[in-house]
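Severity: low
Component: inverse-folding endpoint
Summary: output formatting inconsistent between runs
Steps to reproduce: submit the following structure tokens with default settings.
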């Protein structure tokens, strides 16, 4: 799982606008954030993966402990409970209305985020 540790910068996003609108983010925030290169910094702290999202307006930090229920903050700022696990080389966190899967594809970090039935994918390159 060491391949997940590092600093990654967003290269591409799929369904960003549809996802953000679907989860209730205001249009002006979507427009302002559309081209922002989010930095994802992943570190290991004991059994936890610490995933920091660095954006110009706000930085969030979530701790995922594999095999445990964790409370995380979503892109919208909501707090949700998820169960973190490993699934075929992916780090997966699933809750009632939220799931995220992180996987390494050709050295890039691919994230698939589903929230309230809306899905977005994001691919980030390691710095």
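Observed output (run 2 of 3):
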């Amino acid at each position: 799982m060491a391949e997940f540790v590092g600093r990654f910068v967003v290269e591409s996003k799929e369904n960003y606008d549809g996802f953000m609108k679907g989860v209730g983010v205001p249009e002006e925030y979507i427009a302002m954030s559309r081209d922002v290169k989010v930095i994802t910094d992943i570190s290991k702290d004991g059994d936890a993966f610490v995933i920091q999202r660095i954006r110009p307006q706000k930085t969030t930090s979530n701790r995922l402990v594999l095999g445990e229920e964790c409370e995380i903050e979503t892109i919208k700022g909501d707090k949700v409970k998820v169960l973190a696990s490993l699934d075929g080389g992916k780090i997966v966190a699933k809750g009632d209305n939220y799931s995220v899967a992180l996987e390494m594809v050709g050295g890039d970090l691919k994230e698939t985020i589903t929230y309230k039935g809306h899905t977005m994918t994001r691919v980030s390159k390691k710095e």
